[in-house]
Design brief:
about 25% strand; about 725 residues; 29 strands; eight-stranded parallel beta barrel; 22 helices; Aminopeptidase; elongated
């Protein structure tokens, strides 16, 4: 599955573009140009008004007269987004439906009696009181993420839940979005809800009726650091009950969406899980066994975990520090006060149950906007993608270059030296990725495609971060609409920060636009690698997260020495004394191609034909014939490096070997292998490479060993 890259479009901050279809389209084109895959359009925000004609929620024009009455802005925006090939997500501020600072009688939190939450706090005299939110501005409360500008609804009120569910169903029925994104599926903080209705529901949940409400939940004390809660005797039950309310609502949404299997169910939460008890939310996997909330019964707490009920968790990694080391240097309270640490925490808490997309609040980088690129890359590295909040910062502050994360350019011949430097740094010497080989196997290769080969550079200092070298198939019959990512890499200092993901996403995007339908890692003609080199769990997992399918087993490059190789000397040739062995001299090229067309049509046939066309030396092709030389029954291709005859320890290659079907199973392959090794020895080769094989035992009879390991991988676009 490919990484997603989304941006949130909040209504008020972006109304200039929402109101003007031309401006909106121009902005969406910029989003697409920086690689975004989806747009999260707020369709009902914290005011409670909707961006579309709803039979349930009031239209936005009643709140803001610059919007046209009853106009369908969702239809207008979704049409533009879809035409540009991006996904359309609809965001709902779930349990916020009014604005206390700019009130309107049609706001559900004002209009509907009993919908708004009731707040527990200390009044000006330091006395504990419970007040409706509209009168709670001057209370000292604890554990609140929001101030009381937004009017929050009571999540435990069944009428509130029914209202929200009806609104969601109406929207999905009408617009069939790619997904819905719920925001503010929570309480304001510890201060809500303390209505009489909530008290009765808590009593029914807990089985307790002798409580002091709210003091037995917690009391509020003033300290030198401000106001804090002091847990009461039923604090843990109170916390668990609120989490159960949110869990059960999430399940109701999931059940409603079963009618719409193509609609992705997404939920936004903050990543600061150890503090999320304050808002009554447990977004963990039900198997998570952390100890963040010691006041709660663990068995009941696990029942409130809802990560497994949603398709995607948008986790707000809202921190200025990008790396854990930055957070430590700046003496933050914990490592999760950083994008990297928060991403790791989210994966630890919920990662086994749902897909996580890490998210960023762009305004936090106002003083250092260049860090946006690094933060995006970090999200890409540690999750299924990245979400940016909010579009308005990209447009108003012109931060598009940072949203790109890096600078991309087509690879050109002038990039060869920089590419070679990275290759020298990241590929072990045994892979022989030399400047000379880069020139012959990539930059001068006839199938090398500069237009889809990517160079990625740091936006600040333009240093090469990484690159991908791509070849396009020159044989549409054998490999139609096919490409090979022949070689790619990221400089060591930039690794494990998400740049590899961005590099491949950009490369795949360009291949898709080129009309390519299948992509292989390596495996090209004149390749550097026949798959992922030196595969391990980390590397394989990386490519799988990008969307590649991996073969089930490894294959190898084998190497052996021809000097003092006793196995060659001891080989008994007598069983095959009547087989004729020749080089591929005059008049025999047609016989070879005919043999391959019958016995090995496809890649081997194509490679041999191409080699002959380009002047392959006859002595580098071994052929087996029947005794009367009337029929070709086997062949082996050899490779001799140009300097092998003049230099000691010359290198060469062997393979493929092919034997006619009718004589297979009689160990004729052993014989042609022996004859080929003898021929390579005559041609001055000392060290032989046999690439791309699983036949370790077959070649091992002549002391060949596995020198390099690979795992093949491909992707259907």
């Amino acid at each position: 599955m490919e990484k997603r890259y989304d941006v949130w479009v909040e209504i008020t901050a972006n109304k200039e573009w929402i109101l003007d279809a031309v401006k909106f389209e121009e902005t969406m084109k910029k989003c697409r140009a920086v690689g975004m895959t989806g747009i999260i359009l707020s369709v009902k925000d914290t005011t409670g008004f909707s961006l579309y004609p709803s039979q349930i929620a009031p239209h936005y024009s009643k709140y803001d007269k610059t919007f046209l009455p009853a106009y369908d802005y969702v239809k207008q925006c979704f049409s533009i987004i879809k035409n540009l090939g991006m996904k359309c997500y609809a965001a709902f501020d779930t349990f916020a439906a009014g604005n206390g600072k700019n009130p309107h009688p049609d706001m559900p939190g004002i209009k509907k009696d009993g919908f708004a939450c009731e707040v527990y706090g200390l009044d000006a005299d330091g006395k504990p009181v419970i007040r409706k939110q509209s009168a709670a501005d001057h209370l000292h409360t604890v554990g609140s993420i929001d101030d009381f500008g937004e009017i929050f609804l009571n999540p435990g009120n069944e009428e509130v839940q029914a209202y929200v569910l009806a609104l969601l169903k109406e929207f999905v029925d009408t617009y069939h979005p790619d997904g819905i994104v719920l925001d503010r599926v929570r309480y304001v903080g510890l201060s809500t809800d303390f209505s009489e209705q909530s008290r009765k529901k808590w009593e029914a949940y807990s089985g307790i009726s002798d409580e002091r409400w709210p003091e037995d939940m917690y009391t509020i004390v003033q300290t030198k650091n401000g106001y804090q809660e002091k847990p009461g005797r039923y604090f843990g039950t109170f916390i668990t009950w609120r989490m159960q309310i949110i869990h059960d609502f999430i399940v109701k949404v999931k059940q409603m969406l079963r009618e719409y299997p193509d609609v992705e169910f997404c939920d936004y939460t903050g990543s600061w899980y150890p503090l999320y008890y304050q808002v009554g939310v447990n977004w963990a996997d039900q198997t998570y066994a952390g100890n963040e909330f010691p006041w709660c019964d663990k068995a009941k707490l696990q029942q409130t975990a809802y990560a497994g009920e949603i398709d995607t968790l948008l986790s707000g990694c809202y921190y200025e520090d990008v790396t854990v080391s930055e957070a430590e240097k700046n003496e933050k309270p914990a490592d999760w006060y950083s994008v990297e640490g928060a991403a790791r925490l989210a994966e630890h808490v919920a990662g086994n149950a749902t897909t996580i997309v890490d998210s960023l609040f762009l305004d936090q980088y106002r003083e250092t906007p260049q860090k946006i690129s690094q933060a995006i890359a970090m999200c890409m590295e540690h999750s299924a993608g990245c979400m940016l909040f909010d579009l308005s910062y990209l447009v108003k502050d012109n931060w598009w270059e940072y949203a790109n994360a890096v600078e991309y350019s087509q690879m050109k011949p002038g990039d060869q030296a920089d590419v070679a430097e990275i290759c020298k740094e990241i590929f072990a010497p045994e892979y022989f990725v030399t400047p000379k080989k880069l020139r012959s196997h990539l930059f001068e290769d006839p199938e090398f495609d500069m237009s889809t080969s990517v160079c990625m550079r740091d936006v600040e200092n333009h240093v090469l971060i990484g690159f991908s070298g791509v070849k396009l198939s020159g044989n549409q019959q054998l490999y139609p609409d096919t490409a090979w990512i022949s070689i790619c890499g990221v400089a060591k200092r930039y690794q494990h920060c998400g740049y590899g993901t961005l590099l491949l996403q950009k490369t795949l995007q360009q291949l898709r636009e080129k009309g390519i339908h299948k992509v292989f890692l390596g495996q090209d003609f004149a390749n550097f690698f026949s798959g992922i080199p030196a595969p391990n769990k980390q590397k394989c997992g990386f490519f799988q997260r990008i969307g590649f399918t991996l073969n089930g087993e490894d294959h190898y490059d084998l190497e052996g020495s021809l000097t003092d190789n006793a196995k060659i000397e001891e080989f008994d040739e007598t069983p095959w004394h009547d087989i004729c062995v020749t080089d591929c001299y005059h008049g025999e090229k047609e016989a070879l191609l005919g043999f391959l067309g019958r016995e090995f049509p496809g890649r081997w046939e194509y490679e041999a034909g191409t080699a002959l066309q380009h002047g392959k030396a006859p002595e580098e092709i071994i052929m087996l014939w029947t005794p009367d030389r009337s029929e070709l029954i086997g062949y082996c291709m050899l490779t001799v490096e140009k300097d092998a005859r003049q230099q000691p320890n010359g290198r060469g290659g062997l393979g493929p070997i092919g034997i006619a079907k009718k004589i297979r199973g009689h160990h004729v392959g052993d014989y042609i292998l022996h004859q080929s090794l003898c021929q390579l020895r005559k041609l001055g080769v000392e060290t032989v490479n046999i690439d791309w094989t699983i036949l370790k035992a077959f070649y091992g009879q002549f002391d060949f060993y596995a020198a390099r390991t690979y795992r093949a991988a491909y992707m259907e676009l």
